[in-house]
DNA sequence: GACAACCTGACC
DNA sequence: GGTCAGGTTGTC
C-alpha cells in the first residue's frame, strides 16, 4: 500500500478538496471493511469535515459531530473524490456523499479498514497507542538511540510500526540503499555515524517522494485518482537483477520479515 | 522469528 | 497451475 508519502499526499489532497464540506449521506456497500460498528446515517448526516490528518499510515478524518473516521489503506485501498454522477469503479466499498461531490473508498483486496470513533477516543485505541513516533517527526538522536537497542535485522526494525510509523517495504529499501546499510545488518551493531546518516536519508527520501506525489507501482493513486511519480526515482526497490546505479553490481533480493528486500551487496555493508 | 491468514489480480 | 504484490495480525 501506500506508505507515508502516499498517505500524506492523499491527506493533503482531501484537505484541499473536501475540508469544510458537509456530509449528506453515506452508502455502505461492503459491511466487512468496518472495524467496530457501522455508523448510523443519522449520526453522520449534517456533519462537516473539519479536516484530515495522518499518523504513520493511518488517516483521521475529523468531523464536526465530535467523531472521526479512521482509514487504513493497507495494500490496495484508495480514497478518491468524485462527482456524484461519475461512474462507480469496481471494488468501491463506501461512498460518503457530500454537499459538493463524494468521497469513495475503494479496495481491490479488501484488506483496508474503516473505523468510526469519537475523536477524543482516538489516542486510546490500542492500535493507535501502539504506534511508534512518525518517521517524519522522530528526532535524529532518538532514532539513533532506539535503533542501537534492537538486536534484530535493521530492515525488520524499520518495518515495525511500533518502533517507528510510516515506513513500508519500498521506502525502507530505498533508505537503506541511500545509507549504504545492508538490510540484514543487526540494528544494534550499526555505527552511530551510519545511523545519523540514515535519519537524514529517511527525511530526504520521504519528503522527495511526497513532493513527487508518492510511488505508484500498480494500485496507488492520489485523492483525485492520479498516479504518483516517485517510482521513477526508485534505485533498488523492484530492481533485482538490474545493475546498481552507483557501482553496477547486480541488485539482489532476499526475504526479511516475510518481505522482499532489494539491495546492492557491494554498496550496502 | 518464521508463517499463514486476510483478498484479488497480474503475470509466467 | 504457481508466484508475487506499497500491510498487518495472530499462531506456533
Features:
269 residues, alpha+beta, five-stranded mixed beta sheet, four-stranded antiparallel beta sheet, 7 helices, 11 strands, 25% helix, DNA-binding
The gist of it:
The chain is an alpha+beta fold and 269 residues long.
Please work out how many helical segments DSSP would assign: 7
Main-sheet strand order equals 2-9-5-4-3
* Secondary-structure content class: alpha+beta
- Approximately how much helix is present in the residues? 10-25%
Instruction: State the end-to-end distance.
Output: 28 Å
- Biggest sheet, in brief? 5 strands, mixed
Low-confidence stretches: none
Name the shape in a single word: globular
Describe the secondary structure blueprint for this structure.
Layout: H1 4-18, E1 23-28, E2 34-35, H2 41-44, E3 49-55, E4 58-63, E5 67-72, E6 77-82, E7 92-98, E8 102-107, E9 113-118, H3 126-129, H4 140-147, H5 154-159, H6 169-178, H7 192-211, E10 252-256, E11 259-263
Parallel strand pairs: 2-9
Antiparallel strand pairs: 1-7, 3-4, 4-5, 5-9, 6-8, 7-8, 10-11
Helix pairs in contact: 1-7, 4-7, 6-7
The structure holds a DNA duplex (12 and 12 nucleotides).
Amino acid at each position: 500500500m501506500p506508505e507515508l508519502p502516499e498517505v500524506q499526499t492523499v491527506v493533503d489532497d482531501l484537505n484541499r478538496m473536501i475540508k469544510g464540506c458537509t456530509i449528506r449521506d453515506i452508502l455502505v456497500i461492503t459491511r466487512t471493511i468496518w472495524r467496530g460498528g457501522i455508523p448510523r446515517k443519522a449520526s453522520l448526516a449534517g456533519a462537516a469535515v473539519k479536516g484530515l490528518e495522518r499518523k504513520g499510515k493511518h488517516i483521521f478524518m475529523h468531523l464536526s459531530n465530535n467523531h472521526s473516521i479512521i482509514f487504513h489503506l493497507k495494500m490496495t485501498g484508495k480514497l478518491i473524490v468524485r462527482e456524484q454522477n461519475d461512474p462507480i469503479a469496481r471494488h468501491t466499498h463506501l461512498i460518503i456523499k457530500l454537499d459538493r461531490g463524494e468521497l469513495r473508498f475503494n479496495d481491490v483486496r479488501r484488506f483496508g479498514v474503516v473505523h468510526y470513533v469519537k475523536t477524543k477516543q482516538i489516542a486510546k485505541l490500542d492500535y493507535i497507542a501502539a504506534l511508534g513516533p512518525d518517521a517524519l517527526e522522530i528526532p535524529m538522536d532518538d532514532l539513533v538511540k532506539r535503533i542501537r537497542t534492537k538486536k534484530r535485522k535493521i530492515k525488520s526494525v524499520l518495518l515495525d510500526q511500533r518502533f517507528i510509523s510510516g515506513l513500508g517495504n519500498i521506502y525502507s529499501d530505498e533508505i537503506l540503499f541511500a545509507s549504504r546499510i545492508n538490510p540484514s545488518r543487526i540494528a544494534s551493531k550499526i555505527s552511530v555515524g551510519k545511523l545519523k546518516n540514515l535519519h537524514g536519508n529517511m527525511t530526504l527520501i520521504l519528503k522527495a517522494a511526497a513532493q513527487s506525489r508518492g510511488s505508484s507501482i500498480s494500485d496507488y493513486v492520489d485523492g483525485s485518482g492520479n498516479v504518483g511519480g516517485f517510482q521513477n526515482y526508485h534505485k533498488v526497490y523492484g530492481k533485482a537483477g538490474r545493475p546498481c546505479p552507483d557501482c553496477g553490481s547486480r541488485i539482489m533480493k532476499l526475504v526479511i520479515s516475510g518481505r522482499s528486500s532489494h539491495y546492492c551487496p557491494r554498496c550496502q555493508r
